[in-house]
Amino acid sequence: MYKHKLYLFGFISAAVLIIALAGVAVSAQITKENLRQSVTAQTLLSEHQMLSSISYRLFKQLTDELIFGRNANQALVRNKRQMIEESLRVIRDLEVQQREELGPDVTQGSVEDTDELEALIGEIITEFNEVIALNDQTPLSQQERLQQLLEYTIDNKFREAINAAVSRQSRMVSATNARIEALNSAIVWFSVILCLLVGPFIVFGCVWLFNQLYQPLTVIQGGTQVIASGNYNFRLPENLDREFDSLVQSLNQMAQQLAEHAQQQDTMRTQLQYEVDQRTSELTEANKQLTLLDARRKQFIADISHELRTPLTIIRGEAQVTLRQNNPVIDDYRGALQTVLDQVVSLSLLVDDLLLLARAEINQLRLYPDTIRVDALIENQLDHWQRKFPQREFQFTRPEAETRIYADEQRLQQILTVLLDNATRYSPADTPVDVTLTEKDKWVELRVRDYGEGISPSDVQYIFERFVRFRPRTEGSGLGLSIARVLVEAHHGDIQVESELGRGSVFIVKLPQEVVG
């Protein structure tokens, strides 16, 4: 129903608007034509007036030739004749255009009079030339032919012809202006009448539409305010006009969904409270872990201070003892320097470890990878450790084929050294160390297993942290496994540990065989 009323109102409004626009377009076109005709008439009037002026000046110059001689003003005469010809051409073109626009009845005689005027001017000029050519010595006032030319032909005949043309064009200008005025008056009256007719229609239509729309909108507005206040059980009536059925149904569905959401909100609030309590418990536990980690870091600082103090104390003591001797021999100096060298080497290794970790932390750790045989590298390392610990058995299990990998050989040796050092340090001297190398899906897996005391489950998660040592009296700085993890990750690999108290530990290193972008 609303749609039909709106369509009707829109159709009538569009029809009235089209009529108004059509009237404006027609009026504009007619006004444009009248203005063009007025411009043409004004131009013709100006051209006739200019033709009259030029012609009289030409006649004066020709008269001067009679008085002062044949050669007087010849250039000016030729110039005026050219101007007359140009003016006549413009007048003839404009009159032809005017006749095409207004018709022969309105412009009757205009083109023919111009032809007669051109012929008359030519006749006058010819007559002047003939009088001049006679070279009559009789006084000018007594020459009958000249008097006939000046008094009858020019003063009467030419003047009447040019005045008739000017008068005709003046009437044309006045008639065109009158038409324009009449059209303007018609447009004004048309606009006034259109406003008087359309104005009440628009006002009546707006009032009608407002009354038709106001009542259901008021109902809908009141219902939405009730729902917005929190009464989600309220429902809008569905007996309004059918155009509002969809809106009312949507609002009722929204109220139902809001009621469901409110219920869900209560449930979620309870769930959220539970999760907050759980997260709080987790954060409390995390805070305990951080406190424990901080304590371990403080312990490491104390340990690293001790590590630094011990070699420095030895170096200083060796130097002082040697310097206090009255007659030291070369062997005394050599022994002191050897002790100092050993301690400096130990300090250098510690500093290198700290520097490597620092570079890794700021992403400045550089690798120099190349294709190497990892099985051969492990065999060489195990031979070295076997010579170093002859009482311990190092067992190596490897694939039958050669195993190659794209990696930094020096860093790979460093990883293997850390794992073997840990295995020998934290297991009895009479227990073996098993090393296993396998290939799978373009990955190489290296396992280093010892049969020592193992690591407690609570400490496993911290085994790769920096500065961690679970035995305070154990030698070392606690940086080895941290360095191993940094080097493995730099090769885009992974390192893990599996351990059980009383049964030893196994460290698992996985490295890609090919280059990782």
Describe this structure in words.
The protein is α+β, with helices and mostly antiparallel strands. 71% of the residues lie in helices and 8% in strands. It has 10 helices and 7 strands. The chain has helices at 2-68, 74-102, 110-134, 144-228, 245-324, 330-361, 374-388, 409-425, 457-460, 480-490, and strands at 370-373, 394-397, 404-407, 433-440, 443-449, 494-500, 504-512. It has a 5-stranded mixed β-sheet with strand order 2-4-5-7-6. A two-stranded antiparallel ribbon has the order 1-3. A hairpin with a 2-residue loop joins strand 4 and strand 5. The longest helix has 85 residues, at 144-228. The chain is elongated. The protein starts with a helix and ends in a 5-residue tail after the last strand. The relative contact order is 0.05.
